[in-house]
Amino acid sequence: VQLVESGGGLVQAGGSLRLSCAASGRTGSVYGMGWFRQAPEKEREFVATINWSGSNTYYADSVKGRFTVSRDNAKNTVYLQMNSLKPEDTAVYYCAATKSATYGSNWRYDYDYWGQGTQVTVSS
């Protein structure tokens, strides 16, 4: 499975961005999907996850109420809608797919496939 993120960019604080993650390859299998982010000199951290059907989501406390994860299985695409962005949201955002945790997971080591990342920069 190959994952390609898009939609990152530069935005002012309070603004919005929507990230997309397009999957290709053996997408016929069922996968839980997640979004993670990594700021300079920091560990990669969990942002959001969604189960294989899209019926269940879970968020990090830092983004709850501002970010929304969704998926369109017909298009093999997962989205991360980010509203009310803050400078501390600045990071490279990665999407990931897990074969084992089809319900979704907030643990990075559950994930088998990763995208290359997309930069999100929020200016104050």
Question: Can you offer a commentary on this structure?
Answer:
Helices cover 0% and strands 49% of the residues. It is mainly β. The strands form two sheets. Strands 2, 4, 5, 6, 9, 10 and 11 form a seven-stranded mixed beta sheet that branches. Strands 1-3-8-7 form a four-stranded antiparallel beta sheet, with no helix packed on it. It is globular, with a radius of gyration of 13 Å.
In short:
This protein has no helices and eleven strands.
**Spans of at least 5 consecutive residues with low confidence:** none
**What portion of residues belong to β-strands?**
over 45%
Query: Sheet bearing the most strands, described?
Result: 7 strands, mixed
Distance between the termini: 37 Å
Class computed from helices, strands and strand pairing: mainly beta
Helix content: under 10%
Helix and strand run: EEEEEEEEEEE
Q: How many beta-strand segments? A: 11
Tertiary shape = globular
Put simply, the count of helices is 0
Rg over CA atoms, rounded to whole Å, is 13 Å
Q: Can you give the mean pLDDT?
A: 95
